[in-house]
Amino acid sequence: MSNDQTNRIDTTRIGYVRKPVWVHPWGYAEAFVIAAAVLVIGFALEWVTPGKSLSAPSWPWNGLIGGVMLLIPIVLQVTLPKNPMILWMSRIPASMGAITAVTISVLLMGLFVQGQSSPVAWVNRLGLTEMTSSWPFLMSIAWFLFVLGMTTVRRSIPLKRKNIGFLLNHLGLWIVVAGGIFGSGDLQRVTMTLEQGQTVWYGTDRDGNMVEMPLALELKRFHMEEYPPKMGVLNHETGNLIVRNEKDLVEIEAGSTGTMSGWHYQIHKFYGESGQIGDRYEPINDYGAAPSALVEATNPDSGDTLRGWISCGSFAMKHRFLQLNEEYSLAMTVPQSKRYMSLVQLYTKSGETGLIDIEVNQPRSAEGWKLYQYSYDDRYGKWSPISVIEAVRDPWLPVVYTGFIMMLFGAGYILWKGKEMANEAGEDDQ
Amino acid sequence: MTWTVYPVVAAVTSGLWGLSLMMLLTGRFKPKVMPLTHLFFWSGMLVLTVFILGLWGSLDRPPMRTLGETRLWYSFFMPLVGYLTWRHWGLGWVLSYSLLMAAVFLMINVLNPEVHDRALMPALQSPWFVPHVIVYIFAYALLAVSAIVAVRVLWDDRRDLLKPSTLLMADNLVYIGFAFLTLGLIFGALWGKEAWGHYWNWDPKEIWALLTWIVYLGYFHIRAHRPGKVRPAMWTLAFAFLVLLVCWFGVNYLPSAQGSIHTY
């Protein structure tokens, strides 16, 4: 290996002669010119068709175009295997050009805020705020898929065992990208807003259109668990909590003591759900009950001791601070949610019914749809009267997952083989 | 164990690694002290491990949610990668740099103290959380070492001192790092499907993770095409690490990423 390496270093350094562009065999220069052309034409198309966002066609057109994208490389490689252009398209310089084109369009996506129109007119007109549905993005992806397809097909004829890692990675990636792009034409994402006691059989898609569903949902109960709230010192002037280190914001627990911004505190009582009765709080579990704590704070300088209730309040109850002095108060933060879920009665067209619980990270399937706990009314927190369920249908998911599995094995192959890969990937036909 | 004791942990760990480094350098002249390199190195690792496990216990959730927590794992994996590289290729300088880098990350955490926060938002409560983060941070550690090696290669190449073994090491680190990057990306996609309804949402963090992945992909191809032309590939490798850093930290400062589901 090392000998070979040294030789190759020498020959390339001595034997490198600059070849005019567009004279075969093509190399990097042509690859980058074409990549730049793909992007420039893409932006030009975007410029002359303002306001038109592209989206993948739905079945059967997406399947048809995908099939053609798959067939072209096969036909070209079988009929014209010796053509210098075909050879070039199956090699690394063309791949690098395509990789660069995709990198640039993804980079633009990463730099410009997506999904909101920009105050700068040309940014919008070039499609920079809606990259995924813009010409430059789709054209660079198409060029990328084409070159990737050419390379993959070339390496699969004839099929050799030593190319297994190459094929897992390249074909896997082709399948993932093609499945993702073309699959987006059939992807449906619909939100269903559920209220207790109402059966809902329609939803709203991302463009605000009403969609009738093959299933109906009725919210039985929305349930949320919360972490205990925290306590901190509030600066009246800024309206913010003072957090300099971990002692400045503590989880509230009855009996705990400590020092915060110089004040020594002791938490005497803590109620997760309570209501205000006169000047004190008592545990209740009514609708809209809020957490509260009885706190004692001592000023280390004067020795003054203050005692009082704090509460973060709720939609139904006011919050309450314990004022320490002119500048500062002790305050309680709104508790963060630990988990939330909806208990839902499901009805389907096929007559199947059942009680299901839909929780974040634990979607349920029905009638070819996956149902997700999406959101709730955060003004009400755990008392939210509504629960929003997202229903997602993605018939191309098995395709994309096949690609993922191939790439996972491909990654395993890279780990297993390591550096031997570089020799395999080398351009043996040059 | 909480962040309160962290400054002590960071100081002790860095101190032990510093001693390990001294022994490594002294070991060139006095081979007898070499075992001490291992002893100090592993003692430092042990202290850090105990802290991480203790923190895990006290938080009651995997300590992988905040940037500070990911830095902690980075400081854990970085020396391991450096150590294994040293043992495998016999190149002590890699260990030195990775120990220094790990110590710097420990210090960043001392200067940016964290609040003890047990809260773990529901979307993160998934069996994918731990593998996704561990695999990524491990990849980041490998790729950081590969960036150090790339700079070394460029430096050596300029002075015509480049050894094939240094280049081979860069390649191997990237191969392993890239494989883990791929695993991290796919684990993230599978998790995304369960948590957010789709495997790819073009979230800013996802965009930058894809960019990182794709720049390393470029490195592979440049290397494979003309193995003799070292410099373009090594510049790509060094640049790729900058993209990685944007993905890891920089995204939080980008205006395009303010609505990200990955801000922490």
Give a concise summary.
The complex is a heterodimer of chains A (430) and B (264). Chain A is an alpha+beta fold and 430 residues long.
Task: Name the descriptors.
heterodimer; A: 430 residues; alpha+beta; Tick-borne Encephalitis virus Glycoprotein, domain 1; 3 domains; five-stranded antiparallel beta sheet; 10 helices; 29% strand; elongated; B: mainly alpha; Four Helix Bundle (Hemerythrin (Met), subunit A); 8 helices; 73% helix; flat
Task: Note down, in words, how this protein is organized.
The complex is a heterodimer of chains A (430) and B (264). Chain A has 430 residues and is α+β, with helices and mostly antiparallel strands. Chain A contains ten helices and 17 strands. In chain A, the strands form three sheets. In chain A, strands 14-13-3-2-1-17-16-15 form an eight-stranded antiparallel β-sheet, with no helix packed on it. In chain A, strands 6, 7, 8, 9 and 10 form a five-stranded antiparallel β-sheet that branches. In chain A, a hairpin with a 2-residue loop joins β15 (364-366) and β16 (369-376). In chain A, α3 packs across α7, α3 runs antiparallel to α8 and α7 (135-156) runs antiparallel to α8 (164-183). Chain A starts with a helix and ends in a 5-residue tail after the last helix. With 264 residues, chain B is an all-alpha fold. Chain B has two domains: 1-120; 123-264, Four Helix Bundle (Hemerythrin (Met), subunit A), CATH 1.20.120. Chain B is built from eight helices and no strands. Chain B has helices at 6-26, 34-59, 67-89, 92-111, 129-158, 164-196, 204-225, 230-248. Chain B is flat, with a radius of gyration of 19 Å. The two termini of chain B are 22 Å apart. Chains A and B meet through α1, α5, β5, β13 and β16 of A and α6 and α7 of B.
